[in-house]
UniProtKB/TrEMBL annotation:
The keyword Transport applies. The keyword ATP-binding applies. One of its GO terms (molecular function) is ATP binding. Pfam families: ABC_tran. Coiled coil: none annotated. This is ABC transporter ATP-binding protein. Residues 11-245 form the ABC transporter domain.
Length: 296
């Protein structure tokens, strides 16, 4: 029974369709996500990312298809279901007169009724402030926070209820490199410790590559590619590029079987080979090529 529960998808999307008048925004979108998985949704502006997430969150009615989130149709999700979700939007602009701890305690109180033996809700506020890097600002009026601190608070608001499923929309916009690294550590902690599933949208492809267990590329209203960053690059790039130096000269070779080429290279030249590098297409190159193929 335990194995069955663990294997039950957190999200199941089949033939998802959305139409606005004569314009079809989503056309047969299909994917699933497992407990503890980080799924990154990539796509150009207008591809349907926001519409897809709003349907999954229960904020928008779909035109067709079957959607299950935490075992429930989002169109019918009640308060107990919603308490299991976390949402981090690009920015919150209210609550400026509250103090940081007061706001989190207030919002957290709404989750107490939905605590379970397996997961106590809300997050202990002192601990939450520590993990998002706001412990030193607990008594600060929100309107006086810096932009980076405010973004950390956005994240804290989204996870205060210790969600089973977390939706993140461009979560690290406005973060400095240290804050971004801390945020990535937090996501890994939530997925590893609490088996939180994460659906993330971002335009930062480096971030996508660091966080994603699986990447979905949405273009023209449908999923055009799905897999890890490495799997997608293999799918797109038939050839790899091998670079090396020999006798002070630099060489470059492109071929399908880089492993075999490198083996033959060392058999022929041995330790005279230097600065060897095997390079596949980056996620950015892969993404751009896939989108261009679809959009023409």
């Amino acid at each position: 029974m335990l194995g069955t529960l663990v294997d039950t998808p957190v999200m199941e999307v089949s033939d998802l369709r959305m139409r606005y008048g004569d314009r079809e925004v989503l056309s047969g979108v299909e994917f699933s996500a497992a407990p503890g998985e980080v799924v990154v949704l990539l796509g150009p502006n207008g591809a349907g990312k926001t519409t897809t997430i709003e349907i999954l969150e229960g904020f928008r009615m779909r035109s067709g298809g079957d959607v299950r989130v935490l075992g429930v149709d989002p169109a019918e999700g009640g308060e107990a279901w919603r308490a299991r979700l976390g949402v981090v939007l690009q920015s919150w602009r209210d609550h400026s007169k509250w103090r940081v701890r007061e706001l989190l305690e207030h919002l957290g109180s709404y989750y107490e009724a939905y605590s379970t033996p397996d997961k106590k809700r809300p997050w202990v506020i002192g601990e939450l402030l520590e993990v998002v890097g706001l412990a030193g600002s607990a008594s600060t009026v929100i309107g006086r926070l810096s932009g980076g601190q405010r973004r950390r608070l956005d994240v804290a608001i989204g996870i205060v209820g210790r969600p089973d499923l977390l939706f993140l929309d461009e979560p690290t916009v406005g973060f400095d490199p240290e804050a971004r690294r801390d945020f990535h550590d937090l996501i890994h902690r939530m997925t590893d410790v609490d088996s939180t599933t994460v659906l993330l949208t971002t335009h930062d492809l480096d971030e996508a590559e660091k966080l994603a267990d699986r990447i979905l590329i949405l273009a023209r209203g449908r999923i055009v590619a799905c897999g890890s960053a490495d799997a997608l690059s293999r799918q797109v790039a038939a050839e790899s590029e091998v670079r090396w130096t020999l006798d002070g000269r630099r060489f470059v070779h492109s071929g399908v079987d880089a492993t075999e080429f490198v083996r033959e290279l060392f058999q022929q030249h041995g330790e005279a080979i230097g600065d060897l590098e095997v390079r596949r297409a980056s996620l950015e190159e892969t993404y751009m090529r896939l989108v261009r193929e679809v959009e023409g």
